[in-house]
Amino acid sequence: MDAREVAKHASASSCWVVIHDNVYDVTDYLGEHPGGQALLLKLAGADATSEYTKVHSTTTVQETLPHSKHLGPLDDSTRQHLRCITKPKPKATTKTASSNMSGPPPLALCVRLADFEPIARAAISRQAYTYISSAADTLQSHHDNLAQWASVSFVPRVLRNVALANMDTSTSMLGQPCALPFFIAATGLAGLTHPEGERALAAAAASRGIHYSPSTYSSIPHKEVAELHRAAQKQSCLPSTLFFQLYVHHDRAKTVQLIRDARAAGYAGLFVTVDTPCVGNRDEDRRLKAEDQLAFGPPPAKTTKVVAGSNSGQLARNMTWDDLPWIRNAWGHDHGRPLALKGIQSAADAKLAADSGLVDAIYLSNHGGRQLHSAPPCLATLLRIRRECPDVLDKCEVFVDGGCLRGGDILKAVCLGAKAVGIGRPLLYALGAYGMAGVVHAIDILKNELETTLALLGVTSPAQLNSSYINVAKLARDIDGLDGIFGNSKL
Fold it and tell me: The Cytochrome b5 heme-binding domain covers which part of the protein (predicted)?
């Protein structure tokens, strides 16, 4: 395909792009693109490879577009005729300009996870920052996630032998040992944040002996993530494995293929996400799309209208408990492959999951506050489980996530019965600010905080912790207050 011909198709009425030296007609896909048509129109008639690889696996375009839209390879000898893309310069503020001139501060000055966010904000694109930082509606759920950890306080014991030689921070998840009671939670499109993307997250996890859960929507193929992780794990000789986070596709065949590919690549567990029948109402995402759209006008009448929250219809809005058996069978649960449900937000659903006998773990999460406005934070859900159906904790492992920024707070969740805590946003900020070195440093920060907190609590291992080491009176009062309003202890 001659590049001069490609360059002619640079409008909403006829939009062609080049990806990995192949030409694609994406005109009919403009209205279905989850990121909005403006993102594609910016690249119309041009080589979109560099922008595409920030957010998509190499095979995504081939799997998404029908074969009739694959127009063939680009004639490399004519490449110079492709449209030149000029990226708009970011609006410079005094702070941003100063930061860009001097570069990020030395990594050693990041002494807590919260330090990475402002540095990343200055370093990464607005699109990337908006994607990471956005949450549902007024961000209340996100803010509640951050605040929840302060609602639990510690009850330390003193005069205990907490010699450093006795310290052991190790635990396990789904039968897989790990060096620390936290893991890298699933976060989509890491390549948008930094070119290393999931490669850096996988390598950092392996280098520090913790687990990692890559997202269905990774920027590089899941097989490649697994291969990179194995190589890094072999070098570090530390326990670390991968758990595949699954978004169930409305097309069962595609979901089964995703599961089989993850299984073949060697992922050790499956995290089935159940809180996302559609994408939440994220105001800042919508604002950014609207601003981009203003530059290109309304989509052509022939394009498909994207329903807010539909994610182009890819997500299975009709998924029910009855779907778990075929997902479990596709995964091979009966052959020892563990399965967890991610996105449990009520004690009632936790009990249903545990009593079903179909899952090995429940993952309490409100999706980082990105889905339902006013969704409960995980610690409140975990306390309800302890009160209303404590047998769940005997039947299933429990993982939690949501706004955790301190190593000590990870131990609060452990005291309440959680096996491990997922860390997402802070590690993406560390990645955006410093690449893999930032992620490793962030993990080390948490490790040091964990060891210090364990010693100050009077124990040497997370396994020694239980509810006697915490005070949940404030958290309980919040829940009891609602119970009193509604007149039902179980709401």
Answer: 1-75
